[in-house]
Specification:
The longest helix has 6 residues. The chain is mainly beta and 130 residues long. It has one helix and twelve strands, in the order E-E-E-E-E-E-E-E-H-E-E-E-E.
């Protein structure tokens, strides 16, 4: 329906084994007419389709914003907060990342749903390949 959230991006990316990838608007971008980015909510569904070989984390950014090419330090767990819910604004701000656990695997995925106001989208999968 025109008055519900819809995806504008292709939810697929790759990540190095044991590495991290920022889940940017290139991979996760939803639009919902009349709803601000901070009210478009992504929810990872609790099912067999949660990440098995990594986790989605919110990364604390430097206070003055990240420098061009900035990446979080993998050794510093203090800046990571595992999450199952985040907003389009979090994605726009660059704080949503997938962290791979480092176990040998060729792919991982998770199922998510996007909501805004009282409307929800069908379920989507984000696929990650290494």
């Amino acid at each position: 329906a025109a008055d519900s959230p819809h995806m504008l991006s292709v939810p697929m990316t790759w990540v190095r084994e044991g590495g991290m990838v920022r889940l940017s608007k290139k991979y996760l971008q939803a639009d919902y007419k009349g709803v601000g980015a901070d009210n478009i909510i992504y929810t990872i569904l609790a099912s067999d389709e949660t990440p098995k070989f990594g986790e989605v984390v919110l990364v604390s950014m430097p206070a003055d914003g990240p420098a061009e090419g900035w990446r979080p330090l993998l050794a510093d767990d203090q800046g990571f907060t595992p999450t199952s819910s985040f907003t389009q604004q979090d994605i726009n701000d660059g704080t949503v990342w997938y962290r791979h656990y480092g176990k040998a695997t060729n792919s991982d995925s998770f199922q998510f749903q996007v909501s805004g106001a009282e409307r929800r989208t069908p379920c989507f999968f984000l696929h990650l390949s290494s």
